[in-house]
Amino acid sequence: MSSNPLPADLCPATRAIHAGRPPHDPDQPLNVPITMASTYVAGGAKEYGRYANDAWTAFEDALGALEGGRALAFASGMAAVATVLDLVGPDSVVVTARHSYLGTLGVLADLEARGRAKSTLVDISDTAAVIDAIDEDTALVWFESPTNPAMEVADIPAIIAAAHEAGARVVIDNTFATPVLQNPLALGADIVVHSATKYIAGHSDVLMGAIVVADDTEGQALYDVLKGRRDLIGAIPGAFEAWLALRGLRTLPLRVERASANAAELARRLADHPAIEEVRYPGFGGMVAIVVRGGAGPADVLVRATRLWVHATSLGGVESTFERRRRWKGEASTIPEGLVRLSVGIEDVEDIWADLKGALDGL
């Protein structure tokens, strides 16, 4: 079990390496072993495989240390999303960004169709409009920053302040920014959600999600409720998946640093290419959106014309991937037909630029 307390003043890169390790005792392994068990001998704290696993605990300790709170691991990002949204009571309102992950919007639409909740979609970059949409009926304000796939950035402190004044909780999906670049709990958010499938695990080989809450009295109450829901529903990751995700998290700061540097350079070069109508880059992170001139047709040609860039719907891996988002019928009509979302990897920037530029030149 992970039980190696860390000094409070460590930097994120150090926390990512050392959090969630076994104690420094003789013959202890450096990594928490994978425990493949569905059942434990009765009388202890674990009892059953749906309630606890040492690999989850180690991963949760490490992610919690990076986000500045207490983490819970889930079977997928959507399992984490659905668990939080399941707490919304009847007739409550969820204010959320109109440009959000399709799965999140899908759960909200399902809840609304079943009379479980109502949702109000807002332009998260229009702070005044967001604040105006929050009232006494609002239970949750849920958003991403940057948004997926529009790459809009929210005024997080202002929105949190307005939500709390109205008595609403704030949930921030931190998948794009990662805890290396942004800590929403430190800004006052109540809950942070991750698709750990993406940057956290980072190697396109794990499906996992996570929820993080503050490490205080109110956060403990939320933690107990959310863990209770996870135990009841069984939305738990496998031990091997948790172990892989933790191994990926160890290099998260390095990967984010390299992907961010590559993305910033590509955004600069793409802005001058005649085939590009618009480049959307918030100035941090490894995600970039481009709008290809001519709309869907040229954009579809682009994603099939590269050798290194992979046409794929996920993101946050070591490899560079991209896709035209409007190929998904559920994507918002406010997303341009020619918008291509780029997840910039950690390859040599000259190689991925040459590959991308060659495909763009061919348009």
What's the arrangement of secondary structure elements?
Blueprint: H1 12-18, H2 54-67, E1 69-74, H3 77-85, E2 92-97, H4 102-113, E3 117-122, H5 127-133, E4 138-144, H6 156-165, E5 169-173, H7 178-181, E6 191-194, E7 209-214, H8 217-233, H9 239-249, H10 252-270, E8 276-280, E9 287-292, H11 296-302, E10 310-311, E11 321-324, E12 339-343, H12 349-361
Helix pairs in contact: 1-2, 2-9, 3-4
InterPro entries: Cys/Met-Metab_PyrdxlP-dep_enz (IPR000277), Cys_met_metab_PP (IPR054542), PyrdxlP-dep_Trfase (IPR015424), PyrdxlP-dep_Trfase_major (IPR015421), PyrdxlP-dep_Trfase_small (IPR015422)
Keywords: Aminotransferase, Pyridoxal phosphate, Transferase
Protein name: PLP-dependent aspartate aminotransferase family protein
The CATH class of the largest domain is: Alpha Beta
What count of helical segments does DSSP give?
A: 12
Secondary-structure element pattern, one letter each: HHEHEHEHEHEHEEHHHEEHEEEH
Main sheet characteristics: 7 strands, mixed
Instruction: Identify the CATH homologous superfamily of the largest domain.
Output: Type I PLP-dependent aspartate aminotransferase-like (Major domain)
Structural class: alpha/beta
Please count the beta strands (DSSP E, at least 2 residues each): 12
**Fraction of residues in helix:** 25-40%
Tell me the strand percentage band: 15-25%
Shape field: globular
- Low-confidence parts, pLDDT < 50 over ≥5 residues? none
Instruction: Calculate the mean pLDDT score and round it.
Output: 96
User: Which fold name fills CATH's third level, the topology of the largest domain?
Assistant: Aspartate Aminotransferase, domain 2
**Gyration radius, to the nearest Å?**
21 Å
Report, as a whole number of angstroms, the end-to-end distance. 55 Å
Strand order of the largest sheet: 1-7-6-5-4-2-3
CATH architecture of the largest domain: 3-Layer(aba) Sandwich
GO molecular function: transaminase activity
Pfam family, one: Cys_Met_Meta_PP
Protein name: PLP-dependent aspartate aminotransferase family protein
Cofactor: pyridoxal 5'-phosphate
